[in-house]
């Protein structure tokens, strides 16, 4: 292979031998040798490495763009889920069916229009990488759905039921979006605050039985979560919400006692005769 650097060096030495005053020409030849050597080092980079870096750059750019779309979808879910919660709070003993029908219709619209966007963006394993981007919206959605379910049936909406609702929105060829248990529990902790507001409102309207039912339900949630939270690895957010949840429980209890409800109607915080956890619908909690 022809060596340009070696040839120019020989040419420079020959010119210097024939012309002792040719230092300018020698300087020019040396500069040419340096440029060629630099060019040779640049051209020595493997094409496969360039392609690899180009692919990584494309992947990161695409992931960042997807994160922005996921954040936007999460904000839309949060905003519209709050509207569902406000709608449920309009419920009274005179308009219960009408209000709940409207709230459930609005919740279905949130699922079809906004949760579906999130599901499409998070096909495959991206829902693990981008959890921080969509978690606030999912928690608000769980809060709204659980609030509707309790006001309609008096029971808890389980995690399996929520994931079953999202299953038809996913592409069957890819791994579907599955809401993880941490986001479910965080959303469940938030719904106790809404139940506290509803209980106090029902007491004001004279619906003491419904307020008592809410009190028992919220105490059950708090009791179960006090058993689960200490075993959670990433529970910093949850521990903060547990303090808020305890305040909600105490406010409901104080409101109920203020109208002279009998203390024997309240379930114990711990040591219930029933085994298992009503939160997750399983026979025994495994830690």
Automatic annotation (TrEMBL):
Residues 49-76 form a coiled coil. Belongs to the translin family. It comes from the Eukaryota. CDD domains: TRAX (cd14820). This is Translin-associated protein X. One of its GO terms (molecular function) is sequence-specific DNA binding. It is found in: Cytoplasm; Nucleus. The keyword Nucleus applies. InterPro entries: Translin_C (IPR016069), Translin_fam (IPR002848), Translin_N (IPR016068), Translin_sf (IPR036081). Keywords: Coiled coil, Cytoplasm, Nucleus. One of its GO terms (cellular component) is cytoplasm.
């Amino acid at each position: 292979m022809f060596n340009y650097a070696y040839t120019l060096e020989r040419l420079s030495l020959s010119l210097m031998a024939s012309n002792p005053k040719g230092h300018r020409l020698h300087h020019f030849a040396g500069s040419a040798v340096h440029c060629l050597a630099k060019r040779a080092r640049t051209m020595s980079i493997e094409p496969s490495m360039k392609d690899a870096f180009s692919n990584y750059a494309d992947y990161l750019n695409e992931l960042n763009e997807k994160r922005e779309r996921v954040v936007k979808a999460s904000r839309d879910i949060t905003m519209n889920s709050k509207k569902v919660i406000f709608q449920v709070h309009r419920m009274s003993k005179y308009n219960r069916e009408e209000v709940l029908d409207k709230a459930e219709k609005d919740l279905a619209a949130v699922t079809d229009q906004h949760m579906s966007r999130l599901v499409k963006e998070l096909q495959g394993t991206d829902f693990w990488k981008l959890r921080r981007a969509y978690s606030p919206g999912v928690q608000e959605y769980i809060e709204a759905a659980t609030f509707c379910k309790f006001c309609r049936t008096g029971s808890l909406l389980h995690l399996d039921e929520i994931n079953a609702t999202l299953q038809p929105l996913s592409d069957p060829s890819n791994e579907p979006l599955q809401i993880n248990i941490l986001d479910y529990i965080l959303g469940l902790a938030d719904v106790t605050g809404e139940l506290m507001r509803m209980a106090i409102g029902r007491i004001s309207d004279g619906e003491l039985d419904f307020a008592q039912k809410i009190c028992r339900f919220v105490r059950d949630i708090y009791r179960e979560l006090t058993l689960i939270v200490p075993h959670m690895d990433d529970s910093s957010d949850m521990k903060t919400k547990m303090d808020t949840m305890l305040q909600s429980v105490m406010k409901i209890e104080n409101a109920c006692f203020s109208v002279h409800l009998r203390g024997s109607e309240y379930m114990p915080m711990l040591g219930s005769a029933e085994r298992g956890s009503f939160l997750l619908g399983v026979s025994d909690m495994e830690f």
